[in-house]
Write a structure and sequence with these properties.
Elements: E1 32-42, E2 47-56, E3 63-71, E4 74-82, E5 85-86, E6 90-92, E7 96-100, E8 110-116, E9 120-128, H1 135-138, E10 153-169, E11 176-190, H2 193-196, E12 201-207, E13 213-219, E14 232-237, E15 242-252, E16 258-265, E17 270-285, E18 299-311, E19 316-327
Antiparallel strand pairs: 1-2, 1-11, 2-3, 3-4, 5-6, 6-7, 7-8, 8-9, 9-10, 10-11, 12-13, 12-19, 13-14, 14-15, 15-16, 16-17, 17-18, 18-19
């Protein structure tokens, strides 16, 4: 694509090196985390993949990766937590790694994702689809900012992506050609998950019939507690444009699957579509630490629901949606067993 066009504000662009690890700054009492998330689907294979990786600068083991894969009767999720490798050529551990290709946060942005689990192996070239906004500037204040000296802060960029490569279930033996689309994000900063949010979130993205892309998220952080309005941020992009979401609606089914949306963007683009049918589904997590009596008693998990949509012209296309939830790990912590000491305590 030859670089970012002048029509997009320069401050909305992440630096190419933001894909790599950063030098930690700020309050050392908070952990420095570098996070990478990818969700991908090949509609023809009916295969869904997801990967979340955290690299912690001040912890050992440093690299924790969760990979999930679903296709037909095949389903697996595996976590590996160990000291990994991180340099200008690759980031990851012995189970899953990202090999650095071209860094530009446009359609030329390219990584290779290689994973080797007990049940499946993955080898994909992942490329960006149009432009990736830097949330620190395009949506200032959406995530915690803190200061350079103290406090929690989180920098974030995200991008709709396409992927080509192979998916091999080891029980079958034969590599399958994978060609799909999805969404990814990249975050870095000093933060604890339990201090960022304690409610769920909704996330949607996709490639439209005209080859443009869009994404939005609704998530309430601790910096914006109720009864403040639910903060929503989103964007639309094509080969020359990046425009923020300014209005609309998004309705879901009780199953967490999408139902319909209307999205209004600052440049006048309006997107409307309704669900034809849900397609691929995958449950995964941010692989926060497992049960520990010394840790806060919440952990995030998410349902990736892909769906076939139809717009007003009758064109059909798939989108990615995610419904995130926060749940208890120590389910009985601070509980009262009613039969042993009833009635229930009211205070």
């Amino acid at each position: 694509m030859g670089g970012w066009p002048a029509s997009i504000p320069a401050e909305w662009a992440p630096r190419p090196e933001d894909e790599l690890l950063h030098e930690p700054v700020g309050d050392p009492a908070l952990p420095w985390k570098e996070t990478f998330f990818f969700t991908l689907r090949d509609p023809k294979l009916n295969a869904n993949l997801a990967m979340h990786m955290t690299v912690s600068a001040n912890r050992s083991p440093s690299t924790r990766v969760n990979v999930a894969a679903v296709q037909g009767y095949h389903s697996t999720m595996q976590v590996r937590h160990e000291d990994g490798i991180a340099n200008a050529k690759q980031i990851g551990n012995s189970m899953s790694r990202l090999e650095i290709g071209h860094l530009s946060w446009d359609s030329d942005h390219e990584l290779r994702w290689v994973a080797d689990l007990d049940e499946v192996s993955i080898d994909l070239t992942v490329r960006g689809k149009h432009y990736a906004p830097l949330w620190d500037t395009m949506f200032e204040g959406y995530y915690a900012k803190g200061t350079a000296e103290d406090g929690q802060f989180y920098a974030h960029t995200e991008q709709v992506v396409v992927a080509e490569g192979t998916l091999t279930w080891k029980a079958d033996g034969a590599p399958q050609p994978f060609s799909g689309f999805g969404w990814r994000d990249r975050g870095w900063g000093r933060r604890k998950t339990q201090l960022m949010w304690n409610t769920g979130w909704d996330l949607v993205g996709g490639v439209l019939p005209d080859d443009s892309v869009f994404s939005f998220i609704a998530l309430r952080s601790h910096e914006l507690p109720e009864p403040a309005p639910m903060p929503v941020a989103g964007w639309w992009s094509d080969a020359t444009t990046l425009s923020p979401l300014v209005g609309g609606y998004y309705h879901k089914e009780a199953t967490m699957a999408p139902r319909e949306y209307r999205l209004e963007f600052d440049n006048g683009v309006v997107l409307e579509a309704a669900t034809v049918r849900p397609t691929g589904r995958l449950v995964t997590s941010l692989h926060e630490p497992d049960y520990n009596p010394q840790l806060p008693n919440i952990s995030p998990s998410m349902m990736d629901w892909y769906a076939l949509m139809r717009d007003g012209s009758g064109a059909e296309f798939e989108i990615f949606t995610q419904c995130g939830v926060v749940h208890k790990l120590d389910v009985f912590r601070d509980a009262q067993f009613i039969r042993a000491g009833h009635p229930p305590v009211r205070e």
